[in-house]
Amino acid sequence: MRRRQSRDTSPLQTWARSIGWEKRVKAVCKPCWELKYCPYGPLVEEFPLEEERSYRSCRIFGHDCPVFHVAEPVTETKELRNISRHIPRPVQFRVLKRENQICSDCGKSVQDDDIHFDHIIPHSKGGSSDEHNIRLLCSACNIRRSDRYEAEHLVAGVFEHVQPPLDLEFLDLLLEVFSFAQAFRREAGRFPSTVELAERFAEGNRTPFEERLCEMMNELNEFFAGKKPEEMTANQFTALATRWGYVDGDLYKLKDVAEKFQERITDLVLLERTLLSRAGWYLTDSKAARTKWETY
Length: 296
Prior knowledge:
- This protein folds into three domains: 19-81, no CATH class; 89-145, no CATH class; 159-293, no CATH class.
- The chain is built from 15 helices and two strands.
- The chain has helices at 2-8, 11-18, 30-35, 78-81, 89-99, 139-145, 149-153, 159-162, 169-188, 194-201, 208-225, 234-243, 254-261, 265-278, 287-293; strands spanning 115-119, 134-138.
- A two-stranded antiparallel ribbon has the order 1-2.
- Helix 10 crosses helix 11 and helix 12 packs antiparallel against helix 13.
- The radius of gyration is 24 Å and the shape is elongated.
């Protein structure tokens, strides 16, 4: 009885109840039921349906749909092929008026010869060319966005579903802890132990939280001593290492690092959020939260 209760109160069970999992359609592939986009598209959409579906059968189109293997140009469904990539001129004029010729990403005024119209949900992901899915960007922001739709809008792991996001005050706490830890490292030649962290921040009451912080200090030390990940440039990698004290032992505000390394602060916010999520800390993410993040 206790074992059943334990399963029912697990983070996964709590999340499942919160979204009404039992009432949802259990589609095999995310694109089919969320984006009306099938990985196999015209290759299988005309296939006759089996009388009895297996656990692998797509609940939307009916065919067996194990994984995404085929390149995007031949995976469009009929509905997606009827959506035009072209943005009509009247739509462009309405978006221009709506945005008041201000870039939706960086917030700067855009010159007439620098205006770009961008699909919020990309055409390749089923996004229409209707006004509600079009925004105005400057050329620099449009180029930077390129293929980063997944990084901006999709979760990186299951724990972002099952774990409630932390408030940005947690980032403030992390920066305070790391400032102390880097100063401690300069004097002692090592990071503080869990006992030393507990004495400094928790009146000596050691908990698993202090243990996780110590692990994170060493993980980030190995991370910044290793090879940069593909999603960062070498300049961005060094900027974040500097920000967290892994270059000279001092921590810096994000805006100062962005200015020093001539990086867009919005890009550094996104990369820093990804960095923290890798360490298991998932912070709240919204336009307001990202703006506030820039002040830390």
